[in-house]
């Protein structure tokens, strides 16, 4: 701010011609000074020098004379040009240019001087003497309110002009107080205080500092003129925080802790004393205890990591903090053979054309066996009545999904365990609709035997024979399900007609013979799924008196079951379903195809290759210590990330795992012509697109190669196919049966790996 | 849409602390005066606190109680001189606007967000004190806004509302406001005739002196049993002028001598504050010089 004013004055003095008023003042002052100087004739000064001096001292004659005498009277004989520079009062002035008048009237003086050589005569080019060196002082910051670039705004210019005018008026005024010595007493003029301070430090034209003491001298009426002693306070923490610059100068108060306010309040005696937080508060204690408990399990692992942090990269893996499940080390095969109630485990799949009553028949069977209680049944009946399809009530025992119930068809296989006196069964109720063939294949993969449900009513049988009754029978055969019970359903609708039964029997027999089923493994049972006739009990209908064969459940119990041989094989279990339960944890559902496992065993999941441990085992809702082949189990896993498990994975023995393949060969029977094409490989939950190509044509009986690299496998032909999976690898081994289907969903071929 | 132009408060509910009241029987006098009567409390003053303002200053006065950081804390910002709105009629002078606002947490009794009558009153006092100092015709058609925020009140928060010394407390705040505003105006570079500073003196009576009244500079209400009268002045030391005078209290009879003595004591207190003020500004000037010099050295 002050620098601005300084600059401004310079501009005025240098650029603008003197005003008439000033000129008059100047002339008057010049006369007076000349008069004064006449008394000392040895002093030689030019008019310009006097004028300059007067201008400096605001036309103060006394001061000007004193200054001129002081400046030029010391060495009177010398011309001003040759004067040695007086000591620089301000470091602002470069020393070489110090003689101010010379500088100001440089042009005139230059004209008089003979040559510039003389001017530079004592100027060394290097080794500048110390007294000539200067210190540069940067210009002070511009006014905060000014225009950028330091140019005065109009407002500022106006203000400054007014200020000037006021000053001039003040100086010119006759009432200007003068002291005896002729020195002007600096009355506090209308200048900003900061300006004044600034001028004190940098304005070299003011030769004598403003006598500040005179201010107090002027106050005689004050009885106690002494200014009270005020100590400048150390800034508080707040002050330190808000003033950035003061950080360095004023160190923060050493007081790092502040007393808590209002702790000295007197507490009435009936109230508990205030807690002063000198000891850990109850909250602190509780939090510390909680933190300790939380860390207890994690600490051993951390210790392990600390022992060899870089030795083995595997040690750095984030591990489950839960301990490994402990194994009871049961000799499963021995235990299994010595078990107290030697029940067989069997898994069967219920297949057939859509709406032939598979789910209803199984639901009724459950009810008859007492697996489902009356109350649940009543509930289903009521709900089925509400939507106007009371016949669906039994099916709803099997079909639990809302979509399934709404549409009245089974969509995914439903797994339902039940027990008879001799056997533990697991029903795999497959969907009949053509769209859901993969689910049916899943069911067929895990089944020991199948129930083919056929509608006895006229028309339905025929449509089934063209449709899924035939297809499912074929798929059962492809997946190696040789034992089939054909349940001729809806006999009540057919009026328990023995002729009709016999007719159907012959038709189905013929069909299955064509599929190369062994006929002695096929049995026929007439049933009524809706009425429950001949499921568990003999039919009550008098019209059914002609039938004296076994009931469905009796027929089921005659089926063959896995032997000890399959139990001794290495463990294989296909993941049919994954259940992530917040409470029970991660579990997978599936059938143990071969081998056995017990709690605590290490497992390998293929094709991901992830390791896991058996945390718990269950069949239905019953917890088990071990499971063996043939059982449909719930396997609770630990030490594995749920994202590594997919349906269709194979859980296997880590010592003898299932190979993961991408390309393989298989012997297949063609249902449809097989051309080199993209087909879908189905097995269990596996659904993988692949390129299939016929390699050779094989004689079905003798097994000898008839044709190498055939163009295609015709319908019913037997041949070797090369399969190259497109996307991902699958876990398959020799002997696994797979189905190939085309883009429309039709099964094209089926066979087994070799 | 959320208001993004302001710094919004927390979303959740906050509750201000509610302090237990002192037991009613407790003596009003909390602290003992430790300094001589003719000295002021320690002052910390700093200019240029708020960079966005044209000028700003921060003032701190130590509290009467020595065991805490409590004490008067004032922040002042000066905006301007800036042009007035187009709608305002022409004025050849600077329009001065003063705001004094207690922060809601400044006193024991929570303050509202809008200025109450006492705060407006302080604002009027401050304007009177400053109007005589600023050279108003230097900046025509322009306005200067002076905003003083009381961050912490002078009265210790232990003293709850309703004490008869509230006037003295307001005087102390006003005196601080005047001093801090003066520093901020100087920081803004607004032309003034002099540096104005506030000062307070009081006539107190205490039991130790057997009821004999005595003068105290810069009184702290909690240090004295009874305050008979108080006076707050805004004083220009170089001109020997008073721009604002606030006298309050009862002096016996028509004792004019007592009155003038009290005013003189207040003036004396103001001189003390002025000394701090001038020192601070000088320090600020040299500091600015140092800084710009430092930057020049870097350039080289």
TrEMBL record, chain A:
InterPro entries: G_TR_CS (IPR031157), HBS1-like_N (IPR015033), P-loop_NTPase (IPR027417), T_Tr_GTP-bd_dom (IPR000795), TRAFAC_GTPase_members (IPR050100), Transl_B-barrel_sf (IPR009000)
Tr-type G domain sequence ranges: 343-563
Ranges of Low complexity composition bias in the record: 75-89
Any GO CC annotation of this UniProt entry: Dom34-Hbs1 complex
Disordered, as annotated region: 74-102, 144-194, 202-221
Protein keywords: Cytoplasm, GTP-binding, Hydrolase, Nucleotide-binding, Protein biosynthesis, Translation regulation
Record has Phosphoprotein as a keyword: no
Main location: cytoplasm
Catalytic activity: GTP + H2O = GDP + phosphate + H(+)
Compartments reported by the entry: Cytoplasm
Single GO molecular function: GTPase activity
Annotated GO biological process: cytoplasmic translational termination; regulation of translation
PANTHER family attached to this UniProt entry: TRANSLATION FACTOR (PTHR23115)
Record text on subunit structure and interactions: Component of the Dom34-Hbs1 complex, also named Pelota-HBS1L complex, composed of dom34 and hbs1.
Protein name: Elongation factor 1 alpha-like protein
Species of provenance: Zalerion maritima
UniProtKB/TrEMBL annotation, chain B:
Protein name: Exoribonuclease phosphorolytic domain-containing protein
CDD domains: RNase_PH_MTR3
Region (Disordered): 1-34
Record carries keyword Magnesium: no
Record's subcellular location: Cytoplasm; Nucleus
GO MF assignments: RNA binding
GO BP: any one term: poly(A)-dependent snoRNA 3'-end processing
Chief place of localization: cytoplasm
